[in-house]
Amino acid sequence: MSAQLKRREFITLLGGVAACPLAAHAQQRAPMWRIGVLEGFAESNREGQERTAAFREGLKQLEWIEGRNIRVDIRWAAPGDSELIPRLAKELVALQPDLILSSSTPTTAALLNETRTIPIVFANISDPLGSGFVASYPRPGGNVTGFTNMEPTMAGKWLELLKESAPRMTRVAMLFNPATAPYAEYWLNPFKSAAGALAVVATAAPVHEASELESVIAAHAREPNGGLIVMPDSFPLDHAAAITSLAARYRLPAVYPYRIFAELGGLLAYGNDRLDSYRRAAGYADRILKGEKPGELPVQFPVKFELVVNLKAGKALGLDLPPSLLGRADEVIE
């Protein structure tokens, strides 16, 4: 073997040895992606904790491990806190995360006021098109996309379920907070349209703060044959226990958008599996972190729905719930 060949082999070997520490160092310093979460509930709220946990579990299943390749910064704001939500949105954007998860219409609006470049994924909101967040459902454009909770036709289905449960019902009010549900007409218009076909008088029941809940519900209960529909809105969710308790006290048959209300004593709950939307949001986060643009990912509708009937609540209201309704229920609470 020539001296020149031996020298080449030595240089190649030396280069490989030198590269090893560099490769190991690069492996140790894998990119740490930063995800912000702006949750529209107080940190103590069970609903907010479950939703955020579903998102984090979805990330974990896609091999995004906190402390290894992602860091998650969460900010909590109770529904209707008009000062805290914008402040926390500004705080999160200042961290310059690679992506932000938003939980509600107010949190999404606040984030978009702060950034038009950082990708935002909303997990469970009512009307992103009417709210001006996206240009269209197939191609949102801009820096935001995500998952809606339900289509507006659901308002008619709630009314039908309530009429089926309480056939004597002639008046129905839809409860919501205008501050946390600026999209209220998205639900009120189809609700009022469906009411005419069922010979029911439909009214809006806006509530601006928790202290008004009892007076609004009591006023609607003064006349007989009334019913209540609770709009998909973070404010009623934050006060779910109080609302279901008041509906029972004033003997108002009520239908709610999420199962937690039925678990707390509400008569009927029919809506999307909101935790599924958060798990699916993790999938969009995965795609965006890998290079896809949020504006090119279509806004998606829910795929899982559930009907929960509280038989005990029906008996307390003196209702004889039809077997056809109980047979369609995904769960009957006895």
Quick summary:
The chain has 334 residues and is an alpha/beta fold. Helices cover 44% and strands 19% of the residues.
* End-to-end C-alpha gap: 88 Å
Structural class, by secondary structure, is alpha/beta
The SSE order reads HEHEHEHEEHEHEHEHHEHEHEHHE
CATH-defined topology of the largest domain: Rossmann fold
Looking at the structure, what is the overall shape?
elongated
Number of helices: 13
CATH architecture descriptor name of the largest domain? 3-Layer(aba) Sandwich
Into which percentage range does the β-strand content fall?
15-25%
Number of domains: 2
Largest sheet: 7 strands, mixed
- Low-confidence spans: pLDDT under 50, at least 5 residues? 1-27
Helix content: 40-55%
Report the count of strand segments. Answer: 12
Q: Can you tell me the CATH class of the largest domain?
A: Alpha Beta
Task: Give the C-alpha Rg.
Answer: 25 Å
CATH H level of the largest domain: which superfamily?
Response regulator
Write out the strand line-up for the largest beta sheet, numbering strands in chain order: 7-6-8-9-10-11-12
Descriptive overview:
The chain is α/β, with parallel strands linked by helices. The protein folds into 2 domains: 33-150 and 274-303, 3-Layer(aba) Sandwich (Rossmann fold); 154-272 and 306-333, Response regulator (Rossmann fold, 3-Layer(aba) Sandwich), CATH 3.40.50. It contains 13 helices and 12 strands. It has helices at residues 3-28, 46-61, 84-94, 105-114, 154-165, 184-197, 213-221, 234-238, 240-249, 259-263, 274-289, 311-316, 323-328, and strands at 33-39, 70-76, 99-102, 120-125, 144-148, 171-176, 201-206, 226-230, 254-256, 268-272, 305-310, 331-333. A 7-stranded mixed β-sheet has the order 7-6-8-9-10-11-12, with helices on both faces. A 5-stranded parallel β-sheet has the order 2-1-3-4-5, sandwiched between helices. Strand 1, helix 2 and strand 2 (70-76) form a beta-alpha-beta unit. The radius of gyration is 25 Å and the shape is elongated.
